[in-house]
Amino acid sequence: MRVKHLWLHLVAIVVGAVIIVPVAFGVLGGFKDNGQLSTDPFGLPDPWVPENYTSILGSSAFWRPMFNSALIAAATVVLLVLVASMAAYIFARFNFRGRELLYTLFAAGLMFPFAVAILPLFVLLRELSLLNSPLGVILPQVAFGLPMTIIILRAFFRTIPGEVEEAAILDGCTPFGFYWRILLPMARPALATVSVLAIVTSWNNFMLPLVVFTDPSWWTLPVGVQQFQGQYASDTARILAYVVLAMLPALAFYSVAERQLVGGLASGATKG
Amino acid sequence: MKTTTQGPEGVPAPPSRRTGTREGGARPGFAPDGPGPRVDGSLRRRRRLDKLTVALFLAPALALFVVLVVGPIVLAMYTSLFKWNGFGGLPEDFVGLDNFRRLLEDEVFIGDLRRGLILVVLSVVVQLPIALGLALLLNQPLRGRAFYRLVFFAPYVLSEVITAVLFTMVFSPSQGLVNQVMSVFGMEGQEWLANPSTVLYALFFVISWKYFGLHMILYLAGRQSIPKELTEAALTDGAGAWQVFRHVTLPLLGPTIRISIFLSIIGAIQLFDMVWVLTGGGPIHASETMAVTMFQYGFRRSEVGYASAISVAMFLISLVFALLYQRFVMRRDIEGAITTMRDKR
């Protein structure tokens, strides 16, 4: 048993190294200058060159995209959770003709690859004058996030016992009152799950901000990283520093929201 | 599988829950499922309020979805019938199905299909078995397994752009990690991303690096939902570890495996960010995907009509694939997960 576990640990460590070594290469590379990167790629930096990191941390080319990404992610989540939970409440708790057809329409949205829509979406957003406006990214992100969010929330809303609703109604609750004051607070774990999924999706979205924002002051982090790479193509060390700094918010978020993320993906996949 | 524990998807909420209070209840806003004993004015009013609630609560989601998800797909179908540079108003130069005829003779597009297929096959043969193996490994009572899981899954939260930029550096010919490691072992380095015969495999490596953790997590969830009694019973009956895997674990993981293959294929169809940043589709189209070809024509060469035809082709491919896959591969698992229509049958 011991020997077997030793082998398992060995496998796990090798796989872990494949994950960590490229990232460590980035972190350490950011502390080197380009000469060191060519001559001594593995060793520790000698001397340590913090300028790559400090100059990026002192520039708006980093903080501005970071702020934009955060703003867009926050707005997307709030709007998405609100709109999707309202629809999920109806799909979970009301009977009406055409309900299953409508629900199927939303659920089928899972099968539309976003790349299919990007070009006509661009044309549409141009006609609506939403290019170079954060709404041009937020609204489509909400629309494309609806299927998964509605599916997960509807399933959760159904697990809340009917007695709760009956009691609320006897106490004089309107449908909206029940949704707002009872259903949403009770659904906090599910809301956390879908919010985490939406934040990660929004934070990492690249294609949409790439075409919507021609104005650099609206670039989000992924677009900023890509443009930075183009701009400093020969300065490998500086790009590594930028990439490492750009990873930090996502990794920090992951470390606090891992449970919701893993749970959400597992339940989302089994339903979708 | 979640769906089995909470009853069939799509079945209306059990009537027993609702009828009791609904008919006797004095509150407006809900309609009873069946005709109640007091079909009078107040009930009719209640029904109207009910409809109003449904309409008001559904309207925002429906509006967003129809305008921004359904709308673009319809628009793409329309513009794919025109020769159009994308500027000003709507297209006028109607060319019928010419764009699609051109598509079928476009070597780059045919190549996209071939490369997509290679990536899918590589995923199913290499990436997913590794993910499955690691999931089973992490299912063992191993010290530190929570930490391993945290590390293995971490790349999934990094954006494709960040991953791609990092690996541009890792694969870089002179300063890159890979070539430097190879030179330590006395091997000749490569221009991994600039060589048409290696670029697709380099791309596959980066995709696997980022996504194997997702599949591993799915398998792990699937494995943990298999009751302990089953594997224990097999073991006491004298089955070896391999037999338990082959005849108990693997069949019960079937639904999860089929979903993970589905996700891989849908992912391959729309693969864009990573390719765009890592290689731009090059060299000489050797790593190009459908989405990259579409983007090139639509946003770089102003051939919006032709690019729309590629979009429509991507849509049809994923639609047909999803329907066939649901119908023939996943039908035993999660009937109604995507379409709940079976309730109407």
Automatic annotation (TrEMBL), chain A:
SUPFAM superfamilies: MetI-like (SSF161098). Keywords: Cell membrane, Membrane, Transmembrane, Transmembrane helix, Transport. One of its GO terms (cellular component) is plasma membrane. The keyword Protease does not apply. GO terms for biological process: transmembrane transport. Residues 66-257 form the ABC transmembrane type-1 domain. It is found in: Cell membrane. The chain crosses the membrane at residues 7-31, 70-91, 103-125, 137-157, 190-213, 239-257. Gene3D superfamilies: MetI-like. It is a multi-pass membrane protein. PANTHER family: ABC TRANSPORTER PERMEASE PROTEIN MG189-RELATED, ABC TRANSPORTER PERMEASE PROTEIN MG189-RELATED-RELATED. Belongs to the binding-protein-dependent transport system permease family. This is Sugar ABC transporter permease. It comes from Phytohabitans suffuscus.
Automatic annotation (TrEMBL), chain B:
The keyword Transmembrane helix applies. GO terms for cellular component: plasma membrane. Keywords: Cell membrane, Membrane, Transmembrane, Transmembrane helix, Transport. PROSITE patterns: ABC_TM1. It is a multi-pass membrane protein. GO terms for biological process: transmembrane transport. It comes from the Bacteria. SUPFAM superfamilies: MetI-like. Residues 113-325 form the ABC transmembrane type-1 domain. It is found in: Cell membrane. The chain crosses the membrane at residues 54-78, 117-138, 150-172, 199-221, 261-284, 304-325. It holds the Pfam family BPD_transp_1. InterPro entries: ABC_transporter_permease (IPR051393), MetI-like (IPR000515), MetI-like_sf (IPR035906). Residues 1-42 are annotated as: Disordered. Belongs to the binding-protein-dependent transport system permease family. PANTHER family: ABC TRANSPORTER PERMEASE PROTEIN, DIACETYLCHITOBIOSE UPTAKE SYSTEM PERMEASE PROTEIN NGCF. This is Sugar ABC transporter permease.
